[in-house]
Design brief:
Shape of chain B: elongated
Distance between the termini of chain A: 24 Å
CATH topology of the largest domain in chain B: Aldehyde Dehydrogenase, Chain A, domain 1
Helix content of chain A: 10-25%
CATH architecture of chain A: Sandwich
Strand order of the largest sheet of chain A: 1-5-6-3-4-9
Strand content of chain B: 15-25%
Largest interface: A-B, 34 and 54 residues
Largest sheet of chain A: 6 strands, mixed
Radius of gyration of chain B: 38 Å
Distance between the termini of chain B: 101 Å
CATH superfamily of chain A: HesB-like domain
CATH class of the largest domain in chain B: Alpha Beta
Number of helices of chain A: 2
Structural class of chain A: alpha/beta
Radius of gyration of chain A: 14 Å
Strand content of chain A: 35-45%
Number of strands of chain A: 9
Bound molecules: nicotinamide-adenine-dinucleotide, fe (ii) ion
CATH class of chain A: Mainly Beta
Oligomer: heterodimer
Chain lengths: 122, 886
């Protein structure tokens, strides 16, 4: 069963974000959805990040500015609504993800680019 | 509920905003305390306090011993709080009590061990006996001084212990600190602050502010008053900290993530390896940066190992962390639990085989808590994300391999490089693997062993810098080099002279320690000389010409049974290989003393052998100026030419094939211990060699006088040498067996050698070295041909000296102008050369005219040219001189 999120947004975009994502996708010649996911970036703190991925049956999805965002519902339950902004200032360039229920105290401190999910290793 | 405050400038204070936050027990999810939540204003206050305390100097200015004493008081106060610290640590971080109870103890031990190292082992000041700059003598030493205000940012897995990794070295080295503990686990750092206050650590030296990294991180990492940041945490945050620190070039040490490989070899002790793999992963619920989360297992033992691992993992008792019987407690937070679950799901999606665990655990009698079962994935491929990304939970990946090489390759296939383990019953094999893995720590047949004097830190994206040990102390200091010039006269400072028209060097030091024994029968002194040097096994170095003349045998007989052999395979203008081969012979014969019997070629080879025999290595390692610090292998020189003066000089001239020219060792330590000037040894020298080697000595004397380094002692020696050569060279040419004249020539060569040891040589030598190397013109021949031309070239810069030379050459200078007298000296040298039959032109000794230009380019780069009385920097001028000599 596909669950499409209709009522509350799962993601909010700051200025320039959709443009930055679109140009990333165009640059790589990819037409896929953008997954918001949790990852652990070493010793002590997990973060949210973006990756290009296919949609799984159980995912929550949201169409926004012509882009499709997806998130695993269990992760959504933990982090809540995700805000994505885009920065490009003084050597700090990339996406900053924060969530209504922060994943950790450094939530939004680092910047990340969009990872291209290696087709899951099978 | 308990309330904790910030610790700023020696006071426990509320946050400026009045905000607080709750901290929980992850085993029950119940709040246990409220903590003042620092914001930007509080961070600024803490930084200001630390800055002021540092600049005040009542900590940074203490002696290391006084600071260590205070740190020991601090350690005592932590000891007093031991029980409270252990319980709080366990309750707040989820560490099982059987682990947390050690935390106060190992923190105190670290403080005490590093105190001891700071006082007894740390090189606060270091002398640099050899500076490596031969032109600027002086005392050189370094001091290690504190960096200033250090920010420590510590993580939640070992809140108190890892805070002490930063506090101990920072404070011991004289820094002040602002510590920001992790927001999940702020309590024990604030208790440590109480201990600091009770110990009387001066106000502002140690400050603790709790609050969200997101908010405090930026101010802590960009504030201009912060000098260093020491962070333990995620690679993503570390990267951002490094970037922020770059703005004001703060020193940064980072302990970041890891994905360490624990390699189980086919010969491992099975039970030990199983326990090791278990401990390396499930200890503290896997929330350890050094966890061996990739278990690489040899295919030969894989199945048996796996069976045992499953059984053992399933026997682990998960329970409330304060329960003494629990092996594993909760993860630190809901978020951490969610991350672990996400990776377990991912592992299944990636095709890894979940063989045990993979689920939350409920602890009997407790509602809530973030418990997760020990989880094992088998059939993991190292390319999978569960094998590449750190999970920081009780999740273990088993990766099968076939060979040791493959295991190393898999271990190294990671962006991280923090730690790792090898389990084997063959230590040599295990160590080979440990050396091949690119990580900062490798444990063999053990895991997670931290020791106060053993450095810990990461390769690759696992971090920058080291914690623990002297290395950690170094990280909290900066190095100041202090040069105290031995020269206090601008007219003797060669460096300042680059911007001055005064090019001479007035001051000097005179150190020519060779014991010279001269006269008829002087050889007889050698027997006692060897004994006086404390030696019994003298090796004679000579060349085949000298050997054939019977001179080496004379020496052997004089040595009676102190001679271990005669080695004569030394060619003229010896190269570096000649020295290395001779050294091998000397080593083989266990020689304890070198006796050189020959001309400059043999004596210079012997000087090289004395250096390598003493210090090891190849002579190419020592082609330097003034780097030797101790006496070398004893050397007795018996010159058989009266030319180079090498028997007393501080120089060895060796041909470097790589450098395409003659290169030098210049060092007081290579001067022979004894020089024996026995006229018998030059009587066999053929006439042409007598003449040309004498012109080498003449060139030494005259060039030393013209040099920018010349002084009265040099001039005195040189002038008498010139006089002796002028008088005696014609006599020995007329009668090679004139013993008195031969001895005078030897003395002249020795004195000229001293003269240029003091003042170096100049352009004539630079030019002679070049045509010697490129066109094999013997050294004395080349020197003689170019010398008068160079004297004329230098005339305006050394007229006074050349006038003295003219007098020594017997010219009646009465009524002549100094300039003319100087030129007359050059003429007199040419007349002497003609009289004794010395070659006069380069064309006569096989130098092709078309090569003169390239010779000029090489000559100008010769070290000798630096000291020429007239500055030389135009190759065209040198070419002109070559043309005149052609
Ligand atoms: N270390 C110094 O202070 C210093 C100074 C100037 C030159 N050098 C170097 O010294 C080397 C030249 O030394 P050298 O001019 O003394 O010549 P040499 O040692 O090269 O000997 C030249 C030839 O003379 C023969 N010979 C020497 N003494 C003899 C004797 N008594 N009877 C018969 N044959 C004899 C040798 O067998 C050899 O074939 C060059 O490499 C030169 O660069 C060193
Ligand atoms: Fe010479």
């Amino acid at each position: 069963m596909k669950r499409r999120w209709k009522i509350n947004p799962i993601v909010k975009l700051g200025p320039g974000v959709s443009q930055a994502i679109r140009s990333f996708l165009a640059d790589k010649g990819i037409q896929q959805s953008i997954r918001i996911d949790l990852y652990f970036s070493g010793c002590c703190d997990s973060s949210l990040y973006l990756c290009v991925d296919t949609i799984f049956e159980t995912d929550l999805t949201l169409e926004l500015d012509g882009l499709t965002f997806v998130i695993n519902p269990e992760i959504y339950q933990v982090v809540g609504e995700v805000t994505i902004s885009y920065v490009d200032e003084m050597g700090r360039k990339g996406f900053v993800l924060t969530s209504s229920k922060p994943v950790g105290e450094w939530d939004g401190f680092g910047v990340s680019d969009i990872k291209i999910q290696p087709n899951l290793y099978v | 509920m308990e309330q904790y405050k910030l610790f700023i400038n020696g006071e426990f204070v509320d946050a400026d905003s009045g905000k607080t936050f709750e901290t929980i027990d992850p085993g029950t999810e119940a709040p246990i305390a409220t903590v003042a939540q620092a914001g930007k204003a509080d961070a600024e206050k803490a930084i200001a306090a630390a800055r002021k305390a540092f600049d005040r100097g009542d900590w940074s200015g203490l002696t290391p011993a006084a600071r260590a004493a205070k740190v020991q008081d601090f350690a005592d106060q932590i000891t007093r709080q031991g029980l409270r610290l252990a319980f709080t640590e366990s309750m707040n971080s989820g560490q099982v009590i059987s682990l947390a109870r050690f935390m106060p103890l190992i923190s105190v031990t670290l403080l005490r061990n590093l105190s001891l190292a700071a006082v007894t082992k740390f090189p606060w000041e270091e002398e640099i006996p050899v500076s490596g700059n031969a032109f600027a003598p002086g005392r050189e030493f370094i001091r290690r001084e504190p960096v200033g205000v250090c920010v420590g940012i510590s993580p939640w897995n070992y809140p108190m212990y890892i805070a002490c990794w930063k506090i101990a070295p920072a404070l011991l080295m004289g820094n002040t600190m602002v510590l920001k503990p992790a927001s999940y686990t702020p309590l024990t750092a604030l208790i440590v602050a109480e201990a600091a206050k009770a110990a009387g650590i001066p106000d502002g030296v140690f400050n603790v502010i709790a609050g969200p990294g997101r908010e405090l991180g930026e101010i802590l990492c960009t504030h201009p008053d912060v000098d260093k940041i020491a962070f333990t945490g995620s690679t993503e945050v570390g990267r951002e900290i490094m970037r922020m620190a770059a703005g004001t070039i703060k020193k940064v040490t980072l302990e970041l993530g890891g994905k360490s490989a624990n390699i189980i070899l086919d010969d491992a002790d099975m039970e030990l390896a199983v326990e090791g793999a278990l401990f390396s992963n499930f200890f503290h619920q896997g929330q350890v940066c050094s966890s061996g989360s990739r278990v690489l297992v040899s295919s030969k033992i894989h199945d048996e190992f796996l069976d045992k691992m499953i059984k053992r993992a399933e026997s682990i008792r998960i329970g409330y962390q304060m329960d003494q019987t629990s092996h594993m407690g909760p993860l630190v937070s809901k978020q951490q639990l969610a991350t672990v679950e996400r990776y377990v799901k991912l592992g299944k999606e990636e095709g890894a085989e979940l063989i045990t665990g993979g689920k939350r655990v409920e602890v009997k009698g407790i509602k809530g808590g973030f418990y997760y079962a020990p989880t094992i994935f088998a059939n993991v491929n190292n390319k999978m994300r569960i094998a590449q990304e750190e999970i920081f939970g009780p999740v273990l990946c088993i990766i099968k391999y076939d060979s040791d090489e493959e295991a190393i390759a898999i271990a190294n296939d990671s962006v991280y490089g923090l730690a790792g383990g090898v389990f084997s019953t063959n230590t040599a094999r295990a160590e080979r693997i440990a050396r091949g893995v690119r990580t900062g720590t490798m444990w063999i047949n053990n895991y997670h062993i931290f020791s106060d004097y053993c450095p810990f830190g990461g390769y690759k994206q696992s971090g920058v810098g080291r914690e623990f040990g002297l290395e950690s102390l170094r990280e909290y200091t900066q190095i100041k080099r202090i040069h105290v010039s031995a020269i206090a006269d601008h007219k003797s400072n060669m460096t300042f002279q680059i911007m001055s028209d005064y090019k001479k060097v007035d001051g000097f030091s005179y150190n020519c320690p060779t014991n010279v024994v001269a006269g008829h029968g002087a050889l007889s002194s050698i027997y006692k000389a060897v004994a006086d040097l404390g030696c019994r096994r003298a090796l004679i170095l000579t060349d085949s010409g000298v050997n054939k003349a019977g001179l080496a045998q004379l020496v052997k007989d004089a040595l009676v049974d102190f001679c271990v052999g005669i080695y004569d395979n030394i060619s003229p203008d010896p190269d570096l290989e000649t020295v290395d081969v001779a050294n091998a012979v000397a080593r083989e014969l266990k020689a304890d003393c070198i006796v050189s019997v020959g001309g400059g070629s043999v004596i210079d080879t012997a000087k090289g052998v004395c250096v390598t025999l003493k210090n090891g290595g190849k002579i190419n390692d020592y082609l330097n100026f003034l780097v030797l610090t101790e006496p070398q292998t004893p050397h007795i020189a018996i010159p058989t030419t009266a030319g180079t003066g090498s028997e007393v000089t501080n120089i060895a001239v060796l041909t470097s094939k790589g450098g395409g020219r003659k290169l030098f060792i210049i060092d007081t330590r290579i001067m022979p211990n004894v020089a024996i000037l026995d006229p018998r040894f030059t009587m066999t020298l053929p006439k042409d060699l007598t003449v040309t080697t004498a012109m080498d000595a003449m060139t030494h004397a005259i060039e030393a006088m013209m040099s920018t380094l010349a002084n009265q002692i040099c001039d005195g020696l040189a002038l008498h040498a010139i006089r002796l050569i002028n008088e005696n060279l014609p006599l020995v040419v007329a009668d090679g067996s004139n013993e008195k004249a031969r001895l005078s020539m030897q003395l002249a060569a020795t004195m000229a050698g001293w003269a240029f040891t003091i003042a170096q040589v100049g352009l004539a030598h630079g030019m002679a070295h070049t045509i010697g190397t490129l066109h094999h013109v013997p050294h004395g021949v080349a020197c003689g041909i170019v010398l008068p031309k160079v004297m004329r070239y230098n005339v305006d810069h050394a007229a006074d000296k050349l006038a003295l030379v003219a007098q020594a050459l017997g010219i009646n200078t009465a009524g002549m102008k100094e300039h003319d007298v100087a030129l007359a000296a050059a003429d007199a040298v040419e007349s002497l050369m003609k009289k004794v039959g010395h070659p006069m032109r380069l064309r006569d000794v096989g130098v092709p005219e078309e090569n003169l230009a390239i010779c000029a380019f090489h000559a100008i780069a010769d070290t000798a040219v630096i000291f020429n009385g007239r500055p030389v920097s135009d190759p065209n001028e040198v070419l002109q001189i070559y043309r005149q000599a052609y």
